[in-house]
Structures are given as C-alpha cells and as structure tokens.
Amino acid sequence: MDSDMAVPQLDQFVLTVRNLANSADNRELTEYLSKQSETLHKYITNLDSVLEALDVHENSITVLTVLGVKATAQKPPDIPGVQYHTAIATQINDFVVTISEDELRVLAEPLANVMKSMLTNLGDMEKPMSAIPIIRRAICKLQEKPYQLTQLHCLLCQACLMSNNLKPALSLLDQDIYVLGTDEPAVTFDPKFFLSYYYLGGVIYAAMKNYSRAITFFEIALTTLLPMLSQIMIESYKKFVLVSIIHLGTVPALPKLSPALIERVLKPVCQAYLDIIPAYQIGDPEELQRTINKYHDVYLRDNNKGLVKQVVKALHRKNIHKLTNTFLNMSISDLAQRINLPNIVEAEEHLMAMIESGEIYGKINRKEGTIMFNDPPKKYEDPSVLKKILDEVTNKISFSSTVRMMDEAILINPSFVKKTSSEDDGLSLGQSSSKSYQA
Fold this sequence. Notes:
With 439 residues, this protein is mainly α. 64% of the residues lie in helices and 5% in strands. It has helices spanning 8-21, 26-34, 37-42, 47-53, 60-72, 81-98, 101-106, 108-124, 131-142, 153-162, 167-173, 191-207, 211-223, 231-248, 259-269, 271-274, 276-282, 285-294, 296-301, 305-324, 332-338, 344-356, 383-411, 414-422, and strands at residues 148-149, 179-180, 228-230, 329-331, 362-365, 370-373, 426-428. Strands 4-6-5 form a three-stranded antiparallel β-sheet. The protein has a two-stranded parallel sheet with strand order 1-2. Strands 3-7 form a two-stranded antiparallel sheet. Strand 5 and strand 6 form a beta hairpin. It is elongated and about 85 Å long. The two termini are 42 Å apart. One of its GO terms (biological process) is ubiquitin-dependent protein catabolic process. Keywords: Cytoplasm, Nucleus, Signalosome. Belongs to the CSN3 family. Its main location: cytoplasm. It is found in: Cytoplasm; Nucleus.
C-alpha cells in the first residue's frame, strides 16, 4: 500500500481484504466489509488511495463496496459537488469497463445500489444525463441475452426520466422480456427491480403518448403474483386508470388480480382516480372538471396532473366523434360551444390533431370557419388498420408471456418468495388496508 496514506486503520483494511479475497468462501469477506462502513466513511478523503492499492479483479467486491461508500458519504467540504460526484461516476464507469461480464453478474444487485446513489447525486447536481451511458454499458455486460431483464433496467428508465431524455430507454423497453436476472445460483432477483422497470417503463411510454404499450406495462406491474401489495403497484394502478381512459375510453378489468384485493386495497387509496371514470363516461366536460377540481391536490401530489389534462382532452375528442355521427358540416364556433371549449382556436387545434391522426375524417375551411366531416374509408382496405390489429395481437401475446414468466419464476424459487415476504414493502394480503405504504 502507498506510504503516503498515514492511516493505520485503512492499512489494516487493505491487508485484511486481500487475505480474505484469497479464501474460497466469500461469506467471511462480505461479513467483514459490512462491519467496516464506519471506518471507510470516517476516512472518506483517503479512499482513492485504498482503490489504488487494490486489484480490481482480485478484489472486485471490495472495490465496489468502497465506491458505494464514496457515493453515499457526505462529500468533503473543500471539493465542489459537481467535480466530486462526476469523479465518482467516472470511477464507477471504469470499474464496469474493467471487470469481466462474469465478475459483474455476481455483483449485479450491489452494483445497482451503488449506481442508484450515483444517479441520485448526479440528479442533485442537475447532471442525470451523465449516468445514462454508464448504466447502459453495465446493462450490456450484465445481459447474456437481449430479452433478459437486469437489475439496472429500471435505473436506466429513471435516469431518462430525470434528464427528460426518454429515447435512450426505448431500445430496452421495446424489447420484450422473457428472462429475469442471471443464471448465477448465488444471485436472486429482487421483485422491486421487476416492478420498478414496468412502472417506470409505463411512465415513459405514457409521456411519449404510446398509450397502448403504457397500459401493457402497468398491467404487468399490477398482475404479477407477489405475497404483498407495494406502493409501486398502487401508483401503477392510478396511471393505469388514467391512461386506459385516455386511450380506450374505459378501464378494462385486470386479469388475475383478485377482486377482493381491489375492493380492500386499491379502491380506497385510488378513489380520486376511480371517480374520474363515471365523470368521463357521462360525457359532460363540466362534471369531469368538477371531479378534477375536487381532487386537484391529489393529482398534483402524485405527479399525475399531466395525465389528468390528457383525460380532459380525450373527452373533447370523444364528444367531437359524436358530432361527426350527427352533422355533415358545422361551424367551428358552434362545435366549440357544444363541447364546452373556450374558443374556436382550441377547437381547431383538436380538429387538426384528430384529422392528422386519422381519428376523424374531414376538411377545415378556415375562410368560412367551418368543418366538413367525411366518411372514413372502408376499414379493412387500409393496410394501416391490418398493421394496427397485428400489433395489438402481438402486444397481448407478449404481455401474457411476460406475466406467466414472472409468476413461474416466483413459484419455483422458494428463496425469492421468502425474500419478498420478509420485506416490509407494503400491504400483505392478510393485513388491514389501513397500513401505510412504502415504495
């Protein structure tokens, strides 16, 4: 070890981990590292010298542990935050690049925890985009197959949402998942990574207005068989309701989810969202707005205000559809009045968007301020209709396969079920619905 480190405790730490790394049993090393957190935090400014003294291949667990301490410890006061956390991100990236795929797969879960701290710090520095290539690189090394879900998929989605740069996540989200984690016998796959991935993936698809895919992702998060209901599942249900109304005009029944569970847990905590359903189906914009005003603070707290606004727009589109069945042409001002829009400019924006998307067929005469509605082409003569049908069928088959795969993984993995049921992560099926929820 370098002589410039005049810290006997760290000298001893390096010697001990080197000796333990040569042991065939990693449990003793893991146990030792868990007891050294206080020492490592105390000498945070000296940890770079510790890293230099360790061989990353022979001491990969220790190196990752030290990086985790650096990522979670309070930064030294004499170093600017951006400089400090960017340097740690670079060290984590170097770690990912240096060690082999097999070495990294054994450390998948602790690596996810370290990278989560890295992302939080970069987010606080308003630099979350810097984490995206590091996380993507790690996912590529962890994956043995492109359809394999890793512990870092959800973290990449989070980084993309934090940086408002959603496209980097699409290459992963568009790939259907059939394998969880790794085949390493010592590595279990925590369900929080699965649920977080499908919840955050649903959020990304909803933000990109790919509502069909968003619904599928929220459904998967909701219909996975787990011994308890988590906060992620509750948040998925709230967005599932809103996105379903926007895209389908109704909320489909959830497959495999017990009706008793819905009644006892989901409905009481999601009433603000369930009340939107009848208000929307009535078709009265004023009634819908009254419901939205009533629960305004709830939607704001849940970060669902944007989706609620889309519900209002969906109702306007629904009412425009009704008018196309009644009138061949009409003035845009009359249309705006009938569907309760504030002015003809907004009415014209709705009409243009619906014509461009193929929701309605018509032609706007701006000079006269009128809209002429046309009959749609014969449904099955349009190749885009056939493509849409095939896409929907493929989507549902994929959804069914993914849910079945997750259910089977839980049923045949006793340690997995034991791990989930031991965590206080929400509401057990046998508990009272008054319990508080933890993400």
